[in-house]
Amino acid sequence: MKVLDVIQKRQSVRKYKEDPIPEKALMRVLEAARLAPSGKNIQPWKFIIVKDKVLKEKLAQASAGQFFMAEAPIIIVGCGFPDNCYARMGRYMKSWSVDVTIALEHLILQAQEEGLGTCWIGSFEEEEVKTILNVPEEVKVLALTPLGYPDEIPRFRGRKNLDEIISYDRY
């Protein structure tokens, strides 16, 4: 499949089958994240692969009660290292959040290629997630995504037209 085809087909999935994810497919999804670019190639990330049912339910509760997450065979938690990243992106910010976001997007697109569904979860209580998963204080949790075979055809939520989001030569 071509990259643009994968991007066009990807939708947020909120209903998952219990079918296990083949280990080879999971490794390709994780490899896509590993290969993502990052500021100065520091790769300031770690991904926690959560398969334990009790932990998944606790994570769903800590994610604004989005219990559909726990239906998926896996929840992936993307973490970043603010103290170990490129510190002057744009000459005003640390790169860790952008770097982890790029890696998660690579992961999400490969998941789509594998026939797996995901849903970017940004609504969560970081301290609760950190407690549940024993994440060290200096590490930040950026986002979570369930990972599994879709048990629905998500509705298309639309996108702005290209002319609404681009300009040439000037803002």
TrEMBL record:
Keywords: Oxidoreductase. Residues 7-68 form the Nitroreductase domain. InterPro entries: Nitroreductase (IPR029479), Nitroreductase-like (IPR000415), TM1586_NiRdase (IPR029478). Residues 103-169 form the Putative nitroreductase TM1586 domain. GO terms for molecular function: oxidoreductase activity. Pfam families: Nitroreductase (PF00881), TM1586_NiRdase (PF14512). PANTHER family: NAD(P)H NITROREDUCTASE YDGI-RELATED, NADH DEHYDROGENASE_NAD(P)H NITROREDUCTASE XCC3605-RELATED. Belongs to the nitroreductase family. This is Nitroreductase domain-containing protein. It comes from marine sediment metagenome.
